[in-house]
Amino acid sequence: MTHISVKVDGTTYEDEVEPRLLLIHYLRDRLGLTGTPIGCDTSNCGACTVELDGTAVKSCTVLAVQADGSEVTTVQGLAHDGELTALQRAFHERHALQCGYCTPGMIMAARDLLREHPHPTPDEVRHGLEGNLCRCTGYQNIVRAVLDVSEEEEVTA
Amino acid sequence: MIETVAREVGRARPRKEDAHLITGQTNWTDNISVNGLLHLAILRSPMAHARIDRVDVSAALERPGVIAAFSGRDVAEAMGSLPCAWPVAEDTVVPDHPPIAVDEVRYAGDPVAVVVARDRYTAADALEAVEVDYTPLPAALDIESALAEGTALVHSDKGTNRCYDYHSASGDYEAAKARADVVLTRRYHQQRLIPTAMEPRSVVVTPRAASGDFTLYSSTQIPHVLRVLLAVTTGIPENKIRVVAPDVGGGFGSKLQVYGEEVITLVLAKRLGRPLKWTESRSEANVATHHGRSQVQDIEVAARRDGTLLGLKVSLLADMGAYLMLLTPGIPILGASMYPAIYKMGAYEFSCTGVFTNRTPIDAYRGAGRPEATFAIERIMDDLAAELGMDPVDLRRHNWIRHEEFPYTTIAGLTYDSGNYEAATDKALALFDYDKLRAEQADRVDHADTVRLGIGVSTYTEMCGLAPSRWLGEMRYAAGGWEAASIRVLPTGKVEVVTGTSPHGQGHVTSWSQIAADALGVPFEDVEVMHGDTMLAPHGMDTYGSRSLVIGGVAVHEAARKVVDKARKVAAHLLEANEADLDFADGAFSVKGSPEARKTIQEVAFATFASHDLPDGMEPSINAEHVLDPDTFSFPHGTHLCAVEVDTETGAAHIRSYVCVDDVGKVINPMIVEGQLHGGIAQGIAQALYEEAVYDEEGNLVTGTLADYLVPGAPDLPEFVSDRTETPATSNPLGVKGVGEAGTIASTPAVVNAVVDALRPFGVQDIRMPCTPERVWQALRSGQSGQSGKEASA
What we know:
The complex is a heterodimer. By secondary structure, chain A is α+β, with helices and mostly antiparallel strands. Chain A has helices at about 25-30, 85-95, 105-115, 120-130, 140-150, and strands spanning about 1-10, 10-15, 50, 55-60, 70-75.
């Protein structure tokens, strides 16, 4: 067992974990933060995307021990006092989700994309999200939602 | 008559469903946890076909944290045989299907043993300690050879790999053929697909041992059907089983199933008296969740030189996989009536042979039989047009049912109530700029451009709203196709709609709210919709086959009508007026001629709750249930046009533009309808260009993960241009037709037609799906199709 200290969505957790424990299982099974789902076991689908120290990572490819001393942000840490982020609002208004299973990862990946390219072209949005699979939407409304946010003056994704 | 003001129906309402999904406050089955929850893991066969000589779980049981472990034999009696509800022919071969294999494994992925442990890691580790001795057996891996003499038998006790033969005919095809100027024969291949809902399946069972009650949570499309069949399969009384479909992350038919894992988890939770969870990994899902398509289609069309269709003959070999699941034999038969599509002709013959193979079972995948049918007819229509030197749109126009001819009974015996193929096609051609693209195509041919342009046409229809119960009975399906809705108007005027549909992304909560809000004249926000729990919504037939709106949504409308009828009696009593003298509009009853004398439906609801002054003898309730069994299917249609650029040097096919004009009847929520089409088109494109479940020569699934099975990402798909025409269905009071499968049904032939169209100048007649760069390149190099379709005879 290894001791770790991780700040997740603003709260610091101290835990003893098996070195092999994946970050996604730590979040879901140990902390009960089930907002981030698991969609595959080869890091292709991106459903489990979270932010590790401000960068999007697929939490199925990160060990919990690698997050020791780091800050993790999940989809559950985005809205504050019921106030949605611009991306969450845009996903809602643009019907950018159907079953919603890919949505947490898609939103986290889109945040990353907009940090790097605050004003992307539609093509850049598509390529920026290529690591995240959606089976419901055909992506068109996801692209629209991300572009909506990028067109807002201040990017507060 | 109810007079409703259409305030909600037709509005692009953002969905009520979204709030918890965009904030991570979700309730996927795998999120569910209870005290003492144990985890179940399943050991699966690494071989396509083998005899099980020995299963020894004793070493697994010695591992710390392992609570129990079982072989198939240990639990066979309690688990029964998994049900098949659709033996399409009287002599359908229905093999025994134990949830955990006992004597033989019949596909790579067939369960062999289970382990129950304190956490998922311990359970997965303990699988390694289970010892299994196999004797490999020869496997049947190909539908085209599985019926040949000497081929290995999937079920040796049945003496054949033939599951059934199904035949139907209307008109005299041979006579039609004799009169034809042109007879075109083609063999198309529907590759095997993996549905790949983003949420892997998961099951949680919480038993209450003392009373023998069980709650089963499952990532399922069919909580109601599942409950019935779990009871039948396990012998646990139906009224002791509650099934809950919590948030469900997509289905596409793959969760329209009674899975072995649901039975296993239920039976072992009962045996152990402990709550159990099983969640599949993606690589487990790829072998263990049923697959779709997998057919060989022989199709022959007889026509006159002027393009007039005379007859159609279709002969299918349909892969069943290793076992019959819930609907396996019926899937190709769902397409049987759809091959004649939107065209008039005098003769039609259909036959289908179901074939067992040592591969993952086949069952419903978005469209289920209808995409296959539409693909074959729309592909051969483009081929016929090429053969006749006609424009493919003109050929269709020459043969389709004209709008003034509805209702029209097709040669397959279906009566299409309404449609306007001319309007949808004209609109699509204009949006697509068809003539300009044809000119560019010719220009590129003239200049011997290395990048060629191809244009694909698909003018599809489909049968939605599965299904009239009588039709299902005639088709030997075990259940009916009705749907239930009930509406409660609460004392405070808020409304609860309970639906028997079980959404998993389709937005029923929003759409049903819109329907109920209009019918009752209450605010959209005041309507709650409940579903997916047999305790909360005890009466239902669930969600599949584009049935939910056409049956379930209309049931909501009808239930609301009953509520208003009951409320009218109370209002008339309170207003001291005759019922006939009351108008109902905007949620209020008013007396004709004196509009100030009025009672809102909320006031009526409270008066009914108080019950101080109801009409004599009236039951103190305005709540109502309606169970709707449709008389017929509905028939959405549309025209999809695809332009593909094919690089003749690399074989890469790139979709340049995609236009669709769909007619799904009256639209409740245009945003949801558009979303359904986008996603459907994407899945159809995926079949055309990207996806295929590939097995090696020993029957191992090569495309076992999302690294190998190419679900398209955002850069792999184009921007879709979509529009609608709106020809209301005449078969239901809302005029709705359904939309869940339309995109998938329409898009695959549009794309493949476009790729083939680009390469016709090189002598290419067909390319097997998926049209990967390699296959396109090879087709180009060989200057002919990758298949053995006969040339047309004149």
